[in-house]
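Notes from the 1:1 (GR / supervisor)

We went over the backlog. Supervisor wanted to see one worked example end to end before approving the batch request, so GR pasted a single chain during the call. The sequence is below; no edits were made to it. Supervisor asked that the structure be written out right there so they could see what the output format looks like.
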Amino acid sequence: MTRLPIEGVLPELRHILARGRTAVLTAPPGAGKTTRVPLALLDEPWLQGRRIVMLEPRRLAARAAAHFMAMTLGEAVGRTVGYRMRLESKIGPTTRIEVVTEGILTRLLQEDPSLAEYAIVIFDEFHERSLHADLGLALCLDAQRLFRPDLRLLVMSATLNGGTVADLLNHAPIIACEGRLFPVDTRYLDRPASGPLDQEVVRIVQRALKQERGSLLVFLPGMAEIRRVERRLLESRLDPTVLIAPLHGDLPQEAQDQAIRPAPPGTRKIVLATSIAETSLTIDGIRVVIDAGFLRTPRFDPRTGLTRLETIRVTQDSAEQRRGRAGRVEPGVCYRLWTAAEQQTLAARRPPEILEADLAPMLLELAAWGAADPYALSWLDPPPAGAVAQAKDLLIRLGALDNQGRITPHGRQMAELALHPRLAHMILNAIPLDLGGLACEVAALLSERDVLRSQPGWRNADLRLRLDVLHEFQRSGEPQGALGEHDLASLPRISVDRTACQRVRQVAEQWRRQLKILASGKDDPERLGVLLAFAYPDRIAQRQRGTDRRYVLANGRGACFPQPEPLASGAYLVIADLDAGTQWARIDLAAPVSQEELETYCGDQIREVESVWWDERTQAVRARRQRRLGELVLAEQPILHPAPAQITAALLSGVRRKGLASLPWTKELRQWRARVAFLRRVEGPASSWPDVSDEALLEGLERWLGPFLDGVTRLDALQHLDLAGPLQALLTREQQGRLDRLAPTYLVVPSGSRIRLDYEAGDVPVLAVRLQELFGCCETPRVADGKVPVSLHLLSPAGRPVQITQDLASFWTSAYPEVRKELRGRYPKHPWPDDPLSARPTSRTSRRV
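Structure output shown during the call:
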């Protein structure tokens, strides 16, 4: 065997595992940890005849690692070294190393929490921080604590900070391997890319083919981009010696092997890969990497309960992993489709999947393990409380958990299926209806890649079409022409993905065998909506009135079709897949369901409620008896005599929406409110005067206004209400007397006139009075037991303000002479005495003095 960097630390690793139970191994990509470590432990005495199990996050890498180790031993896969993954297993009675993919380790633990057949669990590529890896490690730590103190745990990582993992493993020793990487020349764009991604990638590929030797590895976000780049390259008429090899997890094994193996002599390869090629997997002959700088990842929103597939910028650690692929065997080149300045803005690493994922499957596994409280286990990053609460609510709704979070018998059956809880619940509910076979097909269609391909910007969301394609594929292996009610010839923007069809068939058949479901003539595709309603009760949708593409979901959220579709003609749909990225989520997959079917199969979710609410459109209270499925109203009829308290509550809701201005305020009532507010300001909030601000009155509507609303159901009827009664009821009899004394509505001025005070004009009341009516008065009038001087607005004979003051004596001595000089010529019939304090006040005109 060629000596790899990992060989130098294997003696230390064996020594640590011989003495202890946990270890952390950090080694860069290409160091050889994936294939050398399990083989190096085969002869350790502590194995005692037990097996080694290694968790490999990706199926492609797991299969390749097992094949390489078997080849190293000169054996076929399935003897000393084997692998297990969904739909595929190569394990024999002599197998001592099992490479398993995510989900398989969890099944092994659920079947035997002590892992009696295994001596060590190796977590490879733990830096990817997949949800299954975090869950598997938490369960293994619990198993080690409760059942198997001798169980060894080894965590291997390329870029993760080993210290945090070591702390989780009770301060496990850390072994660091320095790796061996040839120099890689990194080349950035001069300016940010502006054109379509596939066009920019092809341009760099063509440049690299001219300037560099060796094969190319191109990192792209997903399969759609791989197909577009492949098509552009084929159209560019490449040299016949250049081979194009797509590489992603859903390819058949033969196609994956073709991408991984060395190019035939005299040729070179262009491997178009997703992020699957970042780690573990060795692709022979690669010395040029082209990184498009993006990856596709699912993100779950606990607020909506929906998962959205997002294309995001690559992180710095992933970019380094990709770059390293060019320097595995000789000096290489890495083209990055971003600028050096943009490199500095990339996030250091992706958040762990446990912080962004749908946690319903994990929570069900924990309940089956016996851990109703997920926080009782040891986590590198504890699951977010919001996502845990959302997952628990869903599992309770599906009948998998009881209200205390304990697993039910139905939930245990769901957990055994190793499916998302929604799909497991659907299949189990379908079996008594003789729809089990159909349910297995639907579950496979929803859990695997879409069997249909469509051009960008256009798709057909009808799940029945996928089912028709699958059935035709099963019959003839070549779906084309008429498909039930659908015709592919009439859908020119759609083509069939035959590889996906084959995989869906395999998955569905596996579940049929597991559940012993026989073929049934009752597998009617038109019952598809019923099955989806079992899986997605929160996504049963009702078409919004007056629209042709918008629907309201049972959970209260909205969804729509981005373009016209025949499916949008149905009054009810069940939505299996939707993108939650906008205010109106985009419907990606759905099937119709009738109201009769909802009544029959979802009756336990339908409730009758009496609703009394404020109707904004009619500005009145409405009362209806409704049959509701979540937030959907299936039927309703008016309630002739609703409870008065409900009517009042609904009416007050309308008042709150419209604001206090909707009430019949008069000038006198507004002044009354301002007088009370004035005394509350003077005596302080601790006084007995009530708070009559907008906020306080709106908050307390039930207390002060509610008792006066008997028989009122419409907003316009409120205009006939005498608002004085409700408002004055806020004051005690004593306060009403004090209000008139401390905050009078008017004052008698020296001329004998009764002048109204304005309490709304400012913080202190305003007395607007003609100047001549105050002759002989040197003291400013006061209110509130003499505590507050009023604000005097002194008016001209024409009623226009000439001075504002709270100090009348000062006005007479300082400002009055100038006012007299200015106004006496303009108003000659009015008195303008030299000494206003000795003059007689008057409200009439007289000869000039």
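Supervisor's comment: The CA atoms of residues 674 and 759 lie 5 Å apart.
Batch request approved.
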